[in-house]
Fold each of these.
Amino acid sequence: MPKKLDGLVGVITGAGSGIGAAIARDLGSAGMRLVLVGRRLEPLSERAAEVEAKGGSAVAVSADMRTYEDADRAIGVALERWGKVDVLIPNAAIADYGPIAQADPALLRDVVETNLIGVMFAVRAALPHMEARRSGHIAIVSSASGRVTYVGEPAYVASKHGTVAFAECLRQEVAATGIRVSLIEPGLVETPLIHVYPEANDLVPGVIALDPDDIARAVRYVLEQPDNVNVFEVLLRPTGQLL
C-alpha cells in the first residue's frame, strides 16, 4: 500500500512556477501541509491559494536559498507552524547558455549558488530536525544534465553534477538514521526555465517536453514508498530525448 502523505509537513523551494508549482498542487491534494519557498512572493501566494482552495494547507515564504539565513528561516516557518519537517524538496534552479569564454561571471556564480549551494543550505537547515526525530524524506530535484555533459550550458551542467554527488553523499550519511534521500532527474520539461534562452532548445531538436505534472508524479511516487524502501534515483526524459 502507498504510504499516506496526509498530514505530513513539506517544504518545497522554487515553488512559484514550473515543476515546483506542480509538486505543490499534487502534494497539497494529497493532504500535505506545505511551505512554498521562492524569491518572489506573488506567485508563491498564488500557488498557496490554489492549494488552500482545494482543501489543502500551504503558506508562502519569500526567501533566497543562496543565503543560509533565508534557508534556515524557511525551515523555521514549518517548525513554528506545524512543529516538524517531514519532507524537503529542494527544487529551485536557474540556467545559463552560451560559450564559456563569453560567459557572464556573475551568472556563472548565480547558477552554481542557486542550483547547488541552495540545495546544500536547504538540507543543512532541515537535516538536524529530521535527525532528531530519526525520520524524514529529502527529495532533490536535479536534472538529466547531472548525468551527461554537452556544450551549451556549462554552469548548469556542472551545478547538476554537483547536486547528484551531494545527494549520494547525503544518502550514505543518513541511511542508518531512517531518513530517505531521493534524486529526481528530469530531462526537458515545459517550464519558464526553458524559455529564458530559447536557443538552448536546439540542444534537443524536435523533442516534445515533459509536463511539470510528470515530474510531480515521480516525486509523489518516491514519497509514497514504504519507509523501508528508498527509491534513490528517478531519471525521466521525453521519449525522443537522447541527451
Note: Residues 186 and 236 are 5 Å apart (CA to CA).
Amino acid sequence: MRYRKARGPPGTAGNERYPAIDMRAAYRTSDGHWWHTLTDVEVAVVVVQVVLGIWLRHVLLSVALGVGCAVVGLRRTVACTAVVAAGLGILLSNAAWRGVVPDRLGPFVGSACLISDPASKQGALVVVFEIDGERFESWARGSPRRRIEPHLAGECATLRGTRRALTGVALRRAAIRHIVGGLTIESVGDWTDGSRFDRASNRVRRLFADGSAELRTPDDALFAGLVIGDDRNEPDAMIDEFRRSGLSHLTAVSGQNVAYVLAAAAPLLRRLRSWLRWTATLAVIGWFVALTRFEPSVLRAGVMAGIAATGFVLGREKPPGRVLALAVGVLVLADPLLVWSVGFWLSVFATAGVALLSGRLAALVPGPDWLAMPMGVTLAAQVGVAPVSLLVFGSLPLVSLPANLLAVPVAGAVMLYGLPAGLIAGALHGDGLAGSLATLIQTPSALGTRWVATVAALAARLEPPGAVAAIGWLLVVLAIAAVAARRFTVSRRAPVCEGVG
C-alpha cells in the first residue's frame, strides 16, 4: 500500500489552510513506537493469531494467517506482526507440551510441596504435589488423607510413594494443569510451612476459614466460594444447582472481586504519589491473585486490572476491549496451556460481552435505568458465554436472566463486605463474647449468602426443558431485534433541524 500526501481542493497544493498530510507520520506517535498506533481491532487480530498458533501448532499456519491478513486489507505492519505472533504461539505451545512429559517415574522418597489446596472428591482427597520441579496428582485415602487434609498449598512434606504415568482422557486433563503424572502415596512424614509468602497467604486463608465457620453448612462453603473462589467444600447438589441456574460464575473469582478489593484499598492508595500508588496497586492485585490460588478467571481479571493501572499512570488509558485483548495475549504467552482451559474462556467471553455489548443492550431494554443497566449487563454476559457454554456444556440456561438479576447484586454486596468481615470474624472466632460478636458481624454475610443459594435452587428447579429454553432464547432475541429496528426506524424519520447562522 502506498501513502499519498493529502491535498486541498482541486487546483491547490498543501498550504496553511489545507496542509499536506504524511500518512506514515499519521501512523506514528510522538515516541515513534508503531505498536501504539494499532487500533483495537488490530490488537485483537494479533492476539487471535497468537491463540490460533498455540491451539493449532502448525508451522505453515503462521504464513497462512499473515497472507490472510494481507488479503482482507489489513496494514502491512499488522500482517507481519500476525505472522510473528502466530509463529511465537506455535513455538511456545510446542515447548509447553514438551514440558508436561515426566522426566522420571517410579519409586520416590523425599520432600514434596503442595501446589493446590486439598479438595475432597469421590471419597478421596485430591492433591497436587511438586516433586523436583514436576507436578503429580494424587487421590489420597486412609492415613495419607488424614495427614494431608489440614494442610494448604505451599506447605511441604516428606513422602514415600510411586510416580506413575497417566493415560487416556486423564492425561490430557492433567497436562492442561501442568501435571505430568500420578502419585500413589504410601506414607506421609513431617511437614514444613513453606516460604514466607506461602505462610502469609495460608495464614489469611485459615483466618478467613474460621470466619466462614460462623455461617451454617453449606452456606459457609458458598460464602468462601463467593469471596475468595474457594469452592472445594461445596456439596455436589449445590454445584449442580448453580450450573443449571447459570450462576456458577459467582463462585469463580473475577473482575468484580478484584474491583471490590481495590475499592476497599482505595482510601490508602489515593494518599500515595502516582508511581507509588501504581506499585501498591499491583501489589494488592498480586496478593489477591495469590490468595485465590491463581485460578484462570482471577488471572484474567488481575492482569486486566494491572494493565489498566499501568495505562492510567502512563497517561495511556485504553478501552476495556483493548485491555482484555492485551490481557489474553499476555496470559497465553506466559502459559500457553490456558488456551485449553474452559474456565479461562468462559471468563474471557463473558468479559468481552459485557465490555462490547452491555451499553448497547441496556439502551434497548425498556424501563428505568436501574433495571435497564443490570439487564443489559446480564444479557451481554450471556451472549458472550453462549458459544463456549453451548459447545462445552450443550446448554444455556434460560433462567439465568432472572436469576442473575436477583442474585448478582446481593452476591456483589457479599463479596464487598465478606472479605473484611470474614477476617475480623475469624480473629474473634471462638466461645464467649468474642464468638457472639463474630456471629453478629457475619449476620449480613449469612443473609446474603442464603439469598443467593435460594435463588440458585429455585432457578434450577424452574429451568424449562431444552426445546422450551431454545424457544425462550429465540423470543428474547426477536424482542431485542424488534426494539432495535423500531428505534432505528424512528431515528431515521425524525426531522433534522439545522441551525440558522
Note: DSSP finds 19 helices and six strands in the chain.
